[in-house]
From TrEMBL:
Short name of any one Pfam family annotated for the protein: HD
Keywords carried by this UniProt record: Hydrolase, RNA-binding
GO MF annotation, one: RNA binding
HD domain segment(s): 177-262
Protein name (database record): RNA binding metal dependent phosphohydrolase
CDD domains in alphabetical order: HDc (cd00077), KH-I_RNaseY (cd22431)
SMART domains the UniProt entry points to: HDc, KH
InterPro entries with a match to the protein in the record: HD/PDEase_dom, HD_domain, HDIG_dom, KH_dom, KH_dom_type_1, KH_dom_type_1_sf
Amino acid sequence: MESLKDQAKLDAASYVNEIMDDAKLNANQQAKKIVIQTIQRVATETAIENSVSVFHIDNDEVKGRIIGREGRNIRALEAATGVEIVVDDTPEAIVISAFDPVRREVCRLALHQLVADGRIHPARIEEVVAKVKKQLDNEIIETGKRTAIDLGIHGLHPELIRIIGKMKYRSSYGQNLLQHARETANLCAVMASELGLNPKKAKRAGLLHDIGKVPDEESELPHALYGAKIAEKYKEKPDICNAIGAHHDEMEMNTLLAPIVQ
């Protein structure tokens, strides 16, 4: 009788181990299947950006007017926009250099207006730059709103809307940051649906996961943790904040959304 019991225990243990091995294998295969299906269902586009923009001019005579007497115009434009302007022998082109792409865009648009208008002097430069900054800020907000509407995401704080809009002018690893955020949002929603989780929450977390890369002020925190801090500041729910903060393993995951965003 004891021998039969021992054999039954061995058989049962073997059967349990076999079931566990099969479950692990099936889980791994299913996870791969979900990822592959998700990637196949969501198209991606890559946009390359760098730290310079080129402003094209009709002729090189314009360069002298942009530089101004003793360089006063170019200094005023650099001071107003926070960029470096390179005027060299490159035919019919002026190079605008700055790490912040929003500043480069302000300078490019201001140059376009100044050259078209013909009045280029320090006072006029300050006036045009101030006007362009206001216009661009409105465009940033509109981009953020349109993105949220396109993705069906509601109730975002106005400041988060503005941050999303600014992503249009940022890049990360060679890809436009707004495009990356939109793709991540859609990927997360599809994977959440496949796993029986809330796709709307996953989409929201995916859209916001890189907001820490668009700071208005310098932060010593890694972008994921800084993003979680921003999300918390603007009243996002704890599971959304955790998914943002944990997507580079710098915060412990305590929600099922986190591994999806990661």
